[in-house]
From TrEMBL:
Signal peptide: none annotated. Keywords: Oxidoreductase. InterPro entries: NAD(P)-bd_dom_sf, SDR_fam. It holds the Pfam family adh_short. GO terms for molecular function: oxidoreductase activity. This is SDR family NAD(P)-dependent oxidoreductase.
Length: 305
């Protein structure tokens, strides 16, 4: 029988941080964890939408213990503030879900290309700053969201911020490869340190969320936005279905370090299953070099690993 939300083990007494949880896959992930008893912290950039998501979640799950905390992955000062203000000794689940896709060229507050800065560097910094809480919690997991589109491009270690040439879809694919390389290197470091943390990855396949339409909305491209809306309606699975791989990676017994979970049917839709990944996301040397560059760019080092 296909794995679904009814198979999520009891999460009572556990604490989860879900980035980008005000809508889409992040919201669905947070809601189902709350339904199973976890205390949830929605880490979102937009305060209004974040607080509205808290109210919506509480209306759907009256027993939910859920709160909002400001986090803008495109501004490392807010990442540091979030970690500094995190007031729970334990952290069982960190779901690195938030992301942007195929945006026009822009830079984050810290001067990084936006897709690389938000999708990879912001989560790299957040995980490192929350690491003491994760290491102090038996059975803790970090789940990072990648994409089937990572197979289109490896990271360019000589041009991480796409300064020589910017192609929005290539930059997106590279950021998603960076997510998988981060998980690979984190899992290696955890094993070497003998720590009890599991680092895993997941992707939603083709799920209908506002991620696809955000770029067109920013650029005022009504026709392109409508095209995405039509494609989502015909081909995409729901955000609820898209959240299942992340929920599986976060809660299913026996999830292996550095595993990659996605939809079973061609990696696009269906129940969670082991997913295909590009060979370059398992390259130890590339993982090491990206890690070193990420530490230098963010100023965050992983004490204890």
């Amino acid at each position: 029988m296909a794995w679904n939300v009814h198979d999520i083990p009891d999460q009572s007494g556990r604490t989860a941080v879900v980035t980008g949880a005000n809508s889409g896959i992040g919201y669905c992930t947070a809601r189902e964890l709350a339904r199973k008893g976890a205390r949830i912290l929605l880490a979102c950039r937009n305060e209004l939408r974040g607080k509205e998501a808290v109210e919506r979640l509480q209306s759907e799950v009256p027993s939910a213990r859920v709160g909002y905390r400001h986090l803008d992955l495109g501004d490392l000062s807010t990442v540091r503030a979030f970690a500094k203000d995190y007031d729970d000794e334990r952290l069982d689940l960190l779901i690195n879900n938030a992301g942007v896709m195929a945006l026009p060229y822009a830079k984050t507050a810290d001067g990084f290309e936006t897709q690389f800065g938000v999708n990879h560097l912001g989560h790299f910094a957040l995980t490192g700053l929350l690491l003491p809480h994760l290491l102090a919690t038996p059975g803790a997991r970090v789940v990072s969201l990648s994409s089937w589109m990572h197979t289109a491009a490896n990271v360019d270690l000589g041009d991480l911020n796409s300064e020589r040439r910017y192609r929005r879809w290539s930059a997106y694919s590279r950021s998603k490869s960076a997510n998988l390389l981060f998980v690979h290197e984190l899992a290696r470091r955890v094993e070497a340190a003998g720590a009890g943390l599991t680092a895993a990855a997941a992707h939603p396949g083709y799920a209908s969320t506002n991620l696809q339409t955000e770029s067109s909305k920013l650029e005022g491209h009504r026709a392109r936005r409508r095209m995405w809306e039509l494609a989502n309606g015909v081909f995409a699975q729901s955000a609820d279905a898209g959240a299942l791989p992340a929920l599986y990676a976060a809660t299913a017994p026996g999830v292996l370090p550095d595993s990659y979970t996605g939809p079973r049917l061609l990696g696009m839709r269906g129940e969670p299953a082991r997913s295909r990944r590009a060979s370059w996301t398992l390259n130890d040397r590339t993982g090491e070099l990206l890690w070193a560059a990420s530490e230098q760019l963010t100023g965050v080092s992983y004490a204890g690993l």
